[in-house]
Amino acid sequence: MDRILRPEGAVIIRDDVDTLIKVKRIIAGMRWDAKLVDHEDGPLVPEKVLIAVKQYWVTNSTSTH
Known about the structure:
Elements: E1 10-16, H1 17-29, E2 32-38, E3 47-54
Antiparallel strand pairs: 1-3, 2-3
């Protein structure tokens, strides 16, 4: 998904909270911003919504080798 989503593009994933926590960990490794929010039926529903936004970033051109 990282290759097909443009910088500052968003993805919305709805699933059980256990699955979304695993996905959020992967998303953090790709330098995306992610927010886990409650289901529209309330916080007691085990299904949650993960909203992730791919950030635009470039490498540091002044790195030393």
